[in-house]
């Protein structure tokens, strides 16, 4: 016994209706894709860099010490015994990966809310509000009374910035140097995603005990002259989602996939009925 597939032809008007709907769907899809495309001005960085470099301020940025900074201050001298009373004591710890214990120098001085630290032999020293160079010079001048030709090694131990929002790898970065540019912090987070707003990056900064908000447009090269070009310790960088991401969150992240599947389905239907 043979079984034959029963094919019931559709009325002519149904063919015309399907073609009409297919044409409308293709037009709608094309419109959606056209206006979903981003232009160069929305994506590219430093778009007017040639004009800005002519007037750019080349003055050097210096980190300013502030409350809650944890400082390493190491006093050096030709006679190590003379410098010893002004350094915090070392402690010995045992590492699981090493056969012998290793001494670790504990040189952490936390700047309090008044901008002061308590330093051995000197007492209360005001360092808040000074640059690292100014703080180093102040410590040297204070120690000259007690040590011949002292030298100071001063660093911020807890210099960190946080990058969140529409970046590839949102995270907090520990900075080993004295400064970091905004664009470097973004690069350390894997750069902005395609959905990140480049024209309205927000920097949350604490200054004089108060929070301040700055906004930077990195598509315009003149942001290199902004006070937010270099980040300060504990800055928080937030990248807002662009309109495409916001719209996608309303209709679902798989909208493009659904459009593609429906487009393919309608294409197959039109080919069958022709």
Topology (SSEs and partners):
Elements: H1 12-36, H2 40-43, H3 49-55, E1 70-76, H4 80-83, E2 90-93, E3 102-105, E4 108-110, E5 116-119, E6 123-126, H5 132-143, E7 151-156, E8 160-165, E9 171-174, E10 180-181, H6 182-188, E11 201-207, E12 210-216, E13 230-231, E14 236-239, H7 243-251, H8 255-273
Parallel strand pairs: 8-14
Antiparallel strand pairs: 1-4, 1-7, 2-3, 5-6, 8-9, 10-13, 11-12, 11-14
Helix pairs in contact: 1-8
Instruction: Identify the CATH class of the largest domain.
Output: Alpha Beta
**Binned strand content:** 15-25%
Please, what is the average pLDDT? 77
CATH architecture of the largest domain: Roll
Secondary structure tally, helices: 8
Gyration radius over CA:
31 Å
Which term fits the overall shape? elongated
CATH homologous superfamily assignment of the largest domain: Outer membrane lipoprotein wza domain like
What is the fold-level CATH name, i.e. the topology of the largest domain?
Outer membrane lipoprotein wza fold like
Q: Strand order, biggest sheet?
A: 9-8-14-11-12
Please provide the ordered H/E string of secondary-structure elements: HHHEHEEEEEHEEEEHEEEEHH
* Overall number of strands: 14
The secondary structure category is: alpha+beta
Helix content: 25-40%
Notes on the structure:
By secondary structure, this protein is an alpha+beta fold. It folds into three domains: 54 residues; 97 residues, Outer membrane lipoprotein wza domain like (Outer membrane lipoprotein wza fold like, Roll); 87 residues, wza like fold, CATH 3.30.1950. The protein has eight helices and 14 strands. Strands 9-8-14-11-12 form a five-stranded mixed β-sheet, with helices on one face. Helix 1 runs antiparallel to helix 8. The chain is elongated, with a radius of gyration of 31 Å.
């Amino acid at each position: 016994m043979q079984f034959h597939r029963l094919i019931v032809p559709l009325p002519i008007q149904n063919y015309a209706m399907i073609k009409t709907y297919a044409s409308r769907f293709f037009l709608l899809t094309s419109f959606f894709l056209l206006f979903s495309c981003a232009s160069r001005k929305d994506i590219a960085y430093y778009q007017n860099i040639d004009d800005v470099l002519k007037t750019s301020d080349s003055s050097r940025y210096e980190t300013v010490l502030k409350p809650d900074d944890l400082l390493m201050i190491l006093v050096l001298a030709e006679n190590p015994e003379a410098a010893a009373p002004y350094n915090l004591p070392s402690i010995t710890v045992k590492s699981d990966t090493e056969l012998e214990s290793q001494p670790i120098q504990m040189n952490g001085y936390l700047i309090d809310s008044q901008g002061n630290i308590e330093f051995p032999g000197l007492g209360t020293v005001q360092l808040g509000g000074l640059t690292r160079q100014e703080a180093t010079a102040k410590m040297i001048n204070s120690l000259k009374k007690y040590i011949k030709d002292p030298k100071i090694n001063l660093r911020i131990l807890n210099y960190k910035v946080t990058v969140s929002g529409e970046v590839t790898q949102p995270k907090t970065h520990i900075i080993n140097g004295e400064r970091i540019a905004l664009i470097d912090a973004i690069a350390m987070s894997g750069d902005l995603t395609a959905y990140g707003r480049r024209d309205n990056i927000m920097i949350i900064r604490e200054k004089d005990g108060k929070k301040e908000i700055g906004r930077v447009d990195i598509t315009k090269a003149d942001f290199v002259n902004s006070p937010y070009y270099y980040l300060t310790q504990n800055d928080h960088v937030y990248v807002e989602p662009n309109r495409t991401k916001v719209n996608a969150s309303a209709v679902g992240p798989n909208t493009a996939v659904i459009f593609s599947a429906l487009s393919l389905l309608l294409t197959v239907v039109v080919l069958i009925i022709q």
